[in-house]
Design brief:
Elements: E1 2-8, E2 13-18, H1 21-29, E3 43-45, H2 59-76, H3 80-100, E4 103-106, H4 109-117, E5 126-128, H5 132-140
Parallel strand pairs: 4-5
Antiparallel strand pairs: 1-2, 1-3
């Protein structure tokens, strides 16, 4: 398994996991690699440091580091996995609140955002689906948009 550091044409950095570098190149050429933030398929590989597997040579160092990290986690008020769950719960709460205060206009998002911006429709908070090109065009027109990857939106709230 290869973990590659990637960046889209909009400057968003993210990780990609691939069976091999050849697998990455194959998916990239077929435009299957997509930025999770803006869905851009123009992606490049960033330089990354190799991972050295020193197996048992550093077990004592790793054990000491884990113990030190554990004591720091306790000082900060919880273990790392516990803190991650709290942050995820806060993020989901905020996302559900936003979803509850917006109207889902679906595929008509770009059209409806323009109508609202040009006072052809009542002002209100909307959400929906737009292509990366439509989102860029809206921003160029001075219309504020916030792309949210579909994976972040709980399916039960969309039905």
């Amino acid at each position: 398994m290869k973990v590659l550091d990637l960046q889209c044409s909009q400057g968003h950095r993210f990780e990609g996991w691939f069976a091999s570098v050849d697998d990455f190149e194959s998916q990239l050429s077929r435009k299957l690699v997509e930025c999770p933030m803006c869905a851009a398929t123009e992606v490049s590989r960033l330089p990354s440091a190799p991972r050295l597997n020193l197996s048992g040579a550093t077990n004592a160092q790793n054990d000491a580091a884990r113990r030190a990290a554990g004591s720091r986690d306790e000082e900060r008020g919880g273990s790392v996995p516990e803190r991650i769950r709290e942050i995820e719960a806060q993020a989901m709460h905020a996302l559900r609140e936003v979803l509850g205060k917006t109207e889902n206009v679906g595929e008509r998002f770009a059209e409806e955002a323009r109508r609202i911006h040009y006072n052809e429709a009542p002002a209100r908070n909307i959400r929906g689906v737009a292509t990366p090109e439509d989102a860029r065009s809206l921003v160029e027109e001075g219309i504020d948009v916030l792309p949210v990857p579909g994976a972040w939106v709980p399916k039960e709230t969309l039905q």
